[in-house]
Description:
Number of helices: 5
Mean pLDDT: 93
Distance between the termini: 33 Å
Number of strands: 8
Low-confidence stretches: 1-6, 201-205
Shape: globular
Strand content: 15-25%
Largest sheet: 4 strands, parallel
Helix content: 25-40%
Structural class: alpha/beta
Amino acid sequence: MNAPRSTLELDTRSALIPIDVQCGFDLPPWPPRNNPAMEANALRVLDAWRRAGLPLIHVRHDSVMEGSVLAPGHPGNAHRPGFVPLEGEPLVTKSVNAAFIGTDLDLRLRRLNVDTVVLFGISTDMCVSTTARVAANLGYRTIVIGDACACFDLKDADGSVIPADAIQRAHLATLRAEFAQVVESDAVIDALKPLSQRRPKGVQS
């Protein structure tokens, strides 16, 4: 279990993993989404992370379901503007909820000597949550950036709609209780400042 910390600490063994920040989530059949500030918060973290020069591995969902807007070849499979991997940044593709299943993500992280993973993306209750749970079970210190995640309204068994905000709150609470440290984007950016300041002048990520 990852115990809560009063302050966030990051170092060169920390890796950022953006999960499924793809265009298809704006298309039918996806229902209304929460947290309209998700992209802005995530882009601020992504920029600060690149400036600090820490490990970064992108994750994209390549759906194998017929007709999926996240399937390879569909415009919805593409990363949202600003989230496309830059040259030299690795990309892991998956077809299930957990980014560790059926991929070489764990191997990549071990080779980088990473012991801490920092996650954000879509959706909070599905691929972000599942990846966070597996990461914690694999022994990684796991951090989820709550205000850089989003999820969708969801129908209950009786057809009533559970609002996305309620789903997000419940899932972040569950992750916080057992699997991850849940933080805000500002906390991550603040934790990266000392690392950015130590980088040699002229060095770019």
